[in-house]
């Protein structure tokens, strides 16, 4: 009987510790630093610092997100890349917090924004969301944010030519308990057939990207095999919120689509000459749970090999 009581008390203490830790992680973020070296960075004269932000979901760290904004400023990046889901795509849910935060970023350095599934569904179903995506996009574009909606932008930083490729998969690819078949050819088609103004690409001239260092912003890491086959040098994803709970040695537990133990969930992985970085994200929604899975702002240093 005494042993049972001790076990019960221990269980209560353990549960309380877990609850406190979940609360702490949900309300704090860290900065994760990665270094990427690649033979594709042949023209790089000195290192480039990139900040990667994803899955904020309207979360605010401090008044007007000042803590997060100051962390961005302190990193002194050359480039800010956004991987989507900065807001919550739900009818009637305001996006003011995300908007006010993101619109201040171009004052730090150039900002490029690829959509996630939340922006994607607001865009795909404008009637259901009161045309909120158009207002959100216009306000950020006017502040200097460059959206990459199945679009490719070419930049040169510190002597290195870089192709910034923002992939926007159809909303159907995010269905619960399902996974579509996406291939490298499909990805090329998304870029080629995109109606985005200024794309200027065709299937004939896309191979010219092989001469540049290719960074692919692709929100959902479930289709990583296709991204790797497509030939990106650096792939940046998010979406999984780190798998909610992370287990040392195993990584994230579950994806938003209901699949267990995803291969890529919140880490940097080298695949030959290619690099995969999946963000644990900066916020959460629906299941406001994180354990051993602190939200993160990712700082990437590109260095010549």
TrEMBL record:
Pfam families: Metallophos
InterPro entries listed in its UniProt record: Calcineurin-like_PHP, Metallo-depent_PP-like, Metallophosphoesterase_sf
GO molecular function, one term: metal ion binding
Top-rank lineage group of the source organism: Bacteria
Domain Calcineurin-like phosphoesterase: 48-242
NADP among keywords: no
GO CC annotations, alphabetized: membrane
Stated name of the protein: Metallophosphoesterase
Annotated source species: Mediterraneibacter catenae
GO biological process, alphabetically ordered: lipid A biosynthetic process
Keywords: Hydrolase, Metal-binding
Keyword Cell membrane: no
């Amino acid at each position: 009987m005494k042993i049972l009581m001790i076990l019960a008390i221990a269980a209560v203490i353990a549960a309380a510790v877990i609850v406190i830790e979940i609360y702490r992680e949900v309300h704090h973020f860290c900065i994760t630093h990665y270094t990427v070296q690649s033979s594709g960075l042949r023209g790089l004269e000195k290192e480039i610092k990139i900040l990667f932000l994803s899955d904020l979901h309207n979360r605010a760290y401090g008044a007007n997100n000042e803590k997060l904004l100051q962390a961005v400023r302190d990193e002194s990046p050359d480039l800010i890349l956004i991987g989507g889901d900065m807001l919550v795509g739900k009818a009637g849910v305001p996006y003011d917090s995300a908007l006010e935060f993101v619109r201040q970023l171009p004052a730090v350095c150039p900002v490029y924004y690829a959509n996630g599934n939340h922006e994607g569904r607001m865009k795909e179903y404008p009637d259901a969301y009161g045309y909120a995506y158009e207002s959100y996009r216009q306000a950020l574009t006017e502040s200097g944010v460059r959206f990459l909606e199945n679009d490719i932008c070419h930049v040169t930083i510190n002597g290195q030519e870089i192709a910034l490729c923002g992939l926007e998969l159809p909303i159907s690819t995010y269905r619960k308990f399902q996974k579509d078949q996406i291939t490298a050819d499909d990805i090329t088609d998304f870029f080629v057939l995109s109606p985005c103004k200024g794309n200027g690409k065709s299937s004939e001239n896309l191979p010219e990207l092989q001469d540049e260092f290719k960074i692919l912003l692709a929100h959902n890491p479930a289709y990583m095999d296709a991204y790797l086959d497509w030939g990106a040098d650096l792939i940046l994803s998010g979406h999984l919120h780190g798998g909610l709970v992370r287990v040392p040695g195993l990584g994230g537990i579950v994806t938003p689509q209901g699949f267990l133990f995803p291969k890529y969930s919140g880490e940097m992985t080298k695949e030959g000459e290619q690099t995969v970085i999946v963000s644990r994200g900066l916020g959460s929604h629906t299941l406001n749970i994180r354990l051993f899975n602190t939200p993160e702002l990712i700082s990437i240093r590109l260095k010549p090999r």
